[in-house]
User: What shape does this take?
Amino acid sequence: MTGRLLVALVWMCLVWLMPADAVAQSAPPAQPAPEGGPASNLWLTGGVAFGTLRGDCQTCEEEFPYRHATSVLVNAGYRANERMDVGAEVFWMPVDSEGGQQINTTHIDAVAQFRPWASQGFFVKGGAGMAFVRNWVDLTAQDPINQKALSVVIGTGWAFRPAQRFGFQVFASQHVAAIGDLQQAEENIPDVVGNFWSIGVSVVIR
Amino acid sequence: MGRVTYRALFVALLALCACPVGAAAQPAEAVTPVAPETPVSIETLMAIDPPASNEPFKVKWRDVVFGSDADLAQEPQKPYDWVSERRACEGCPPRSVGRALWQTTAINVIYELANLIRGQVTARITPKTWWDNMSHGWVWDLDDFEVNQVGHPYQGNNYFTSGRANGLSFYESAALTAFGSATWEYFGETNLPSVNDFINTTLGGIALGEMFHRASWLVRDTRATGRGRRWREIGALALDPLTGLNRFRTGDANRMTDKPPDMVPSSIEGFTSAGVLWRGSETRAVNATGQPFLELDMLYGNLQAGESKTPYDAFTVRLRFGGGATFSEARVRGRLLGEPFGGGGKMQFTMMQSYDYQANDAYRIGSQSIEGAVGTTMSLSTNTAVWFAGWGGLTVLGAIDSLPLGVTERPPPEEPGTGGGAGQGVSEGPRFYDYGPGSTYGTFALFTHNRRAIAALLYEGRHIYSLDGVRANHFVQRARIDAMVPLRGRLGLGASGEYFFRQSFYQDEERTQVEYRFPQFRAYFTWSIE
Assistant: This one.
């Protein structure tokens, strides 16, 4: 139930933020950014989030439960123009499986963050890259299995920047890790896709 | 996800600009001439003049009159304050992020209604299906190859051009494409949102969208008047419906201005090839029966040199019809970044985005990639030059046809209505192709004489690691040599030989390896375009 609640919160952020900016659209464009605009072309954020994972596979009959954990998200890049930042994102989330074994997932994505209205803090973000899955699921051996997956991320949020170089942002994002076969000790689970919803806060440095 | 009536889109989009919601959503940004005008309602904006006794029937829609030659004479243009209309230049579209978002959403509604009218089960959306999609997360879908690799990129192209039509930049329109794609996946169908659709719609839509947008500006003549001008605007609308409809809506289709400067290429070259190809197989060198084909190649701008940060100010397009499939090849390679380097800038580095779709007897492949290329141009004589280039890149997502191990032939498709009972539009599989990321690499040399291509050499390779489907590493390679002889004027004669080689390394216990080899020969006439 908590998982569905988090998913609902993520979606509420999307719905809440969008109309706010639609109203802001009628305002004159290109208002200067807070405190006279960006201090540099640096784009750096780091923060924590509450995340929910739901793994799924196409051939599996059973319903997979939502699993929750704290996650870490870091963005680093540069400001391409007044509306866009480009860079890299690292998202890390450790989750305990039903049997108590841990699955650590690290997403490393190339991302672009876009602010439709330069004078507002609202942003949307998208990107793709790789996810590295380190799992101990049903293993008899000591060493975990490391696997790579295709990663896609979408997200949104609102940045508040009271000072020229520092601020914070609230964000909601969804990371997808398409892993292919999830390896286990006795059998592989085919066509596994992990969906990671997260909602959190991070520090912004410009 | 789902089968979509793409051919019905053009007709359906005609309703887009007539919808009063869009006008109401952005009242402050409607086109406002300097000469004050009384605010008009949507009813008066679209007025039909009844024909007089001997007058031809004519329809006036906003500033554009249809149907009467007498009204085609260009009226003197009033100077207008394009800056206050949020235009980046006199001929540029007025900028409106809100209208772009609204039109993107309207495109989704039109696609959804088209599917609903066709009786697609996947179009029966409700708030419950929205919530199911949001809470379940993304999956891989099972739709047909053409739907996913051609249909979805085309749909994404509509989102992208709605941004460009409303004055958004390339990258802003790219973000809009992702927005349109994501909202379609969550809210446009009952199917679970698909990760492959999101990537194909977004990246493919960006590539096709900017290509179509720029190609449509090649068709327009914004300094022309009369019937010729009108038909050019309509022709451009066929290539880029969203920009075309918005131009008719704002009256830009009837206004004399210069084209937006960034929509005028530094050069434009191309040629059309029409001929016959013969394809071989593993057991036979070539088939005796030839297959007709028509191929269109275009080089927009100068990819060989120049510093550039303007996306798609130079790109190449290849479209091929026939030759074993109704639509057998589509390639778009657009420059994102260009930078000369080396002594005197002899070498050229280019960062490109590419969209690929190929269907031949050896393989069907579709991909969205980012590539880096290094090239140089050398003069061999006063009239002859050669352009060398090599490239390598990453395939964000590629699709390649594949059969499950032990299956040697793809079964014929089921007749509509005889499926598993899931309903029309619901794909239950099996899906005879795999999805995964990968890499791309290749090299080519193009020889020109008096700026006309006389010979070309091409080698390209691809690797796709299957993440969804039959688990395998797929390698496809292709070598091609073309020779062309000018005949008279723009007419020429050409011949080419190609060789396709495919290896698939399956990750089963036996580590099965499968290889296919196909030669192909062509003879064709060419018609150069400069």
About this structure: The CA atoms of residues 17 and 23 of chain A lie 10 Å apart.
